[in-house]
Amino acid sequence: MNIDVSNSINIGxxxxxxxxxxxxxxxxxxxxxxxxxxxxxxxxASISMLNKISNSSMNLKQFxxxxxxxxxxxxILRTIKKIPTKEDQSYFLEWARSEFKANKNITDEFAIKSLxxxxxxxxxxxxxxxxxxx
Length: 134
Prior knowledge:
Number of strands: 0
Order of helices and strands: HHHHHH
Helix content: over 70%
Distance between the termini: 81 Å
Largest sheet: none
Strand content: under 5%
Radius of gyration: 26 Å
Shape: elongated
């Protein structure tokens, strides 16, 4: 019995051909009723895998907001590197880390945008104070 597994399993083009050969070889040794059960189990596994991928993926708006947060964090770290004393650098670095960690589980879009604005204002205030100290 020769079964074309690549057409039967609908999980995309990312399957390595060696994996398909292994499935094909293992299915050749099974009888027809077991083979149908095997395909049923594999199709259920592929559907659940696709559901996990779609549930965990971000939409465009979430992706853009995430990029804003990452950019803000990097800019804050760059600003902190401009601080002349190491003790103050470590203090502000710990402050930035703790603030971002404390707010990492927030999912409300309005709250995230408010926190981004607060972070940008804090960074501008820090930059302004650094410029005054020069």
